[in-house]
Amino acid sequence: MRREINVYFVLQLVLGAALIVFGIMAINGYNSAGQEAVRGLNKMFGKSNNIFPITFGIVQLVAGIVLALALFVPIDDGIYRIVHIVICVFFLISIVLNFFLSNFIEPDLVRWLGALLPQVVILLAIWIVGYQD
Fold it and tell me: CA 18 to CA 55: how far, in whole Å?
């Protein structure tokens, strides 16, 4: 497989690396002592311990690996499209849960947008990489 090194190649490589790092950070953060304590308190007070953060971290890690590998190893187009759709859906769910359902315009509009917009840029970059030829 011969790939031309252009802006899409670099975007996909950087995006793959970023997703790998984000996935590792999410998995490490989920297993940190602080998070274990919070999960213990949630359990003690009858709240559910949401497994979405660890699931999303695993999806990010796998997605980053697939995006990076796709640059150098031939991956079936069908598998790549499925992985691409799963990544986009998980990112969209994460954005809705984190920015609209739980922390809508908190603590203020500027900080909320400052946290939301980088996530939207990442989602759009994933979309662009998935649909470029």
Answer: 17
CA-to-CA dists, residue 98 to 13, 18, 25, 76, angstroms: 26, 19, 17, 33
Count how many Cα atoms sit within 13 Å of the Cα of residue 88 in the half-sphere of its side chain: 14
Provide the pLDDT confidence category of residue 17 given band limits of 50, 70 and 90.
Answer: very high
* CA 26-125-116 angle, 5° bins: 60
DSSP string, 31-91: TSHHHHHHHHHHHHTT-----HHHHHHHHHHHHHHHHHHHTTS---HHHHHHHHHHHHHHH
Q: Which of 50, 67, 64, 66 is nearest to 102 (CA)?
A: 50
Q: Compute CA 16 distance to the chain's CA centroid, rounded to the nearest angstrom.
A: 10
Could you tell me the pTM of the whole model? 0.75
Q: Is 101:84 a contact under the CB 8 Å cutoff?
A: no
